[in-house]
Design brief:
Layout (H helix, E strand, L loop, with lengths): L12 H6 L2 H19 L6 H26 L7 H17 L4 H25 L4 H20 L9 H6 L12 H17 L2 H11 L1 H6 L4 H27 L10 H11 L11 H20 L4 H36 L6 H5 L1
Helix pairs in contact: 2-13, 3-8, 3-9, 3-11, 3-12, 3-13, 4-5, 4-6, 4-11, 5-6, 5-11, 8-9, 12-13, 12-14
GO molecular function: hydrolase activity; transmembrane transporter activity
Pfam family, one: BPD_transp_2
Protein name: Autoinducer 2 import system permease protein LsrD
Length: 347
């Protein structure tokens, strides 16, 4: 069996909920939002909220299945290329007379195939996910650019493009957030409240132990990569309609922002640890910080440096906390003999 465990579950529920990295990220989002509302002009406007959510929706969507993949100890770097491929496919099919609904459905099917191809190579062939998805990152992006070349398709029906940016009443919240909330609930239930989700954590802690305990490791990994492919294609459709432009190079580099948000939200890059509420908060944290800094006139390069430093600190904190816990455990074991009753020792 693996030496990795979940000792935190020995603590009361309130402590597990409040004294966690996920709770810290959520608290940081609230603190920065309140500070920005009080000190930065226009930060509290509904228009700022609208554009923040519209800009972060693509990352929010892809982060859901990416969280499950990383918890198993794998990674998918091809998600942004699938976004670009689905965008190019929607544009190409629509330009050749196919209806929008059929074009979007075809893009989802292609996303499923891309995810299944990644999953087959990782789960059944046994190749490292990092190497596989670096390769398919280039493959899918090359196909996407090959489909449209350097041109862009922009003549989409206004009914579709307007729908991607509509707002719920006067709240400033885009209607696309309803789609995200539905998917978030589905993935939260799948990960945190189902045997399938427990199997995901088991795989991340020890793939061999999970296999012996009855988890179908290969099928689980295949399904997770299929999820990332389909949701990335869905994000590509939204990206296309949001900006009204289908290009093969859409969303280039987006995979790094997704992975940064997932790790910032408390998911361990080594697998076996993480929660979706923390990941959602991690995405919003990046969005809130970026929005606040932009309103303060900070350049994009400086914003990227700050986000990068936050990511490095979040990854380092996992190792530091593990080291502190290990030291505390060893000290506790060292004190154990002195706590043995004298009567027992004399026997």
């Amino acid at each position: 069996m693996s030496e990795k465990t979940y000792p935190a579950y020995a603590h009361p529920l309130w402590r597990r909920l409040l004294l966690s990295r996920e709770a810290a990220v959520i608290a940081l989002v609230v603190i920065i939002s309140m500070w920005g509302y009080s000190n930065i002009p226009y930060f509290g406007d509904t228009l700022t909220l609208t554009y923040l959510l519209l800009d972060m929706t693509t990352i929010l969507l892809i982060a859901l299945p990416m969280t499950l993949v990383i918890i198993t100890g794998e990674i998918d770097l091809s998600v942004a290329s699938v976004v670009g491929l689905s965008s190019a496919l929607v544009g190409l099919l629509h330009e050749h007379g196919l209806g929008m609904a059929a074009s979007c459905l075809a893009a989802l099917v292609v996303g499923l195939v891309c995810g299944a191809f990644n999953g087959f190579l990782v789960a059944y062939v046994g190749l490292p996910s990092l190497a596989v998805t670096i390769g398919t990152l280039a493959l899918y992006r090359g196909i996407a650019v090959g489909l449209l070349g350097t041109t862009a398709v922009t003549d989409f029906p206004t009914g579709w493009t307007d729908q991607a940016a509509t707002i719920i009443g006067a709240t400033g919240i885009p209607t696309v957030m309803i789609l995200f909330l539905v998917l978030a609930v589905v993935f939260i239930l799948l990960l945190h409240f189902s045997p399938f989700g427990r199997g995901i954590y088991d795989i991340g802690l020890s793939s061999e132990a999970a296999q012996f305990s009855g988890v179908d490791v290969k099928r689980t990994k295949l399904l997770l990569f299929v999820f990332t492919g389909v949701v990335s294609a869905l994000a590509g459709i939204y990206f296309t309609l949001r900006y009204g432009s289908a290009r093969g190079d859409n969303a280039t580099g987006l995979e790094l922002q997704v992975i940064a948000a997932v790790l910032l939200g408390g998911v361990s890059i080594f697998g076996g640890r993480g929660k979706l509420p923390g990941v959602i908060a991690g995405v919003l944290l990046i969005g809130v910080i970026s929005s606040a800094l932009r309103l303060e006139g900070v350049t994009v390069n400086v914003i990227n440096i700050i986000i990068g430093l936050l990511l490095v600190l979040s990854v380092l904190s996992t190792s530091v906390l593990a080291w502190v816990s290990d030291v505390a455990a060893r000290r506790s074991r060292g004190k154990a003999p002195s706590q043995t009753p004298a009567g027992v020792a004399s026997q």
